[in-house]
Each structure stands twice: as C-alpha cells, then as structure tokens.
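User: Predict the structure for this protein chain, please.
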Amino acid sequence: MRIVRAKDYEDMSRKAAAIIAAEVTLKPDCVLGLATGSTPVGTYQNLVAAYEAGDLDFSKVKTYNLDEYRGLPGDHEQSYRYFMNVNLFDHVNIDKANTHVPDGLMEDYEAACAEYDAAVAAAGNQDLQLLGIGNNGHIGFNEPGDAFVKGTHCVDLTESTIQANSRLFDSIDDVPRQAFSMGIGTIMAAKRILVVANGDAKAQAVHDMIYGPITPSCQASILQLHPNVVVVADEAALAKCPEA
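Assistant: Here is the predicted structure, written as structure tokens:
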C-alpha cells in the first residue's frame, strides 16, 4: 500500500479528489466504484467544484456503488442512492443511466446481487474503487466475520455499525439492520483502490488494515493483497502508524 498523509479532513478530501479527477481526465469513460458515508463527502465536494470550474467531464463515466440499506427506496433521504444524487450526481454532467446503486427493495436478492456483480464485470470492473473504512475495519458493509464473502450479498449489520450510523437517523430504531454490499471479491477486482480515512476513531482500523494480519475480523486487511492501493488519511487516522 502507498500511504498519502494529509494534514486534516480538508486536505485528505483534496488529495483524494485529485486522484479521482486524474482517473477521469486520463480515461473519460472510466468505471468508478463509489462509496458513501461521511468520509467521502468532502471528496465529492471537490469533484463538483472541479466540474463547475470546467476541469472535469463526467459525461462518459460509469459508476457502481458499494452498498445500499435493505428496505429503503432510492428516494428515501437516508438511502445511498439519494446520498449519491445529493452529493455528486445531481451536480455534474453524469448520465444517471450510467450510475448504479444496489436496489434496497430487491426481493429475489440472491439473483439481483449476482446480476449486480455480473454488471460490474461486464463493464470491465472498476478502474478505480473508492473506499472508506469503518471503525471495526469494515469496507462497504462487509462486517467482521469468519470469512471474506466474494460476491454482492445481504449483510446483517453489527451493533457498532448501527450505532455509528444512527447519527443520520431520527432514532436508532430507524436504522436498517441489514444492507446489500458489494463483496470482497468484487472490490478486489478493481484495477486500483483508493481508501480515505480521517479522525482518531479510525486509527486502530487503519493500523490493522495496513499492518495487521490478513483476517476477516478486519475485512480491510485483505487490501494488503491488492497490487495497487493508495490510502489517503489524515494525521489523526494515522496516529497509530507513525512509520507510514
């Protein structure tokens, strides 16, 4: 892994956006794997600013998102389709038909998840996959467990993830207990991976991702086996990685 140290959240966001912008510039029809959550918001804001300045063209870009809450329609304000529209898609010239987020209302979800993986593969897999990392080391919604799940699947969210996401809902009781998540195999098929992390709450997970044993108890540790990973993290998130 290549580690890019940032001063703070704003610096992390600028650096991460620059990497994505370079991908779009060099390959206008690139396939981007995208993430949600609070960490990449600043990255998306920088990409929107670059588009508004006339420096980026998203008209040929295709995107595939990592995950979606089970049971939430795309127009629900806490769905990840809604998040992507509000934070990026509505503000750039991307064709919405080329943006893909798992359907939170899928009924035959095993078949639908397999179709999602097939669509990513048919697009040539992600040229660049953006990832955040959870406090417990999850990537996408791949929670700590006994194995690395290869394909897109339905996940039972851990209590720590439910607690972390409850700040976005009126009540913790409103937080979905399940989600659909791109699997580790689909993530690892990306040609390049960009991980963003900020804050001291992520410090242990970032350390374990980079230096810990490769174990499904820290799903992000599998990234040690990928040949092209860049981690952009601020000083707080790298606090337990002084050598990085």
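The helical segments are 9-26, 41-52, 80-87, 109-122, 159-165, 184-188, 203-211.
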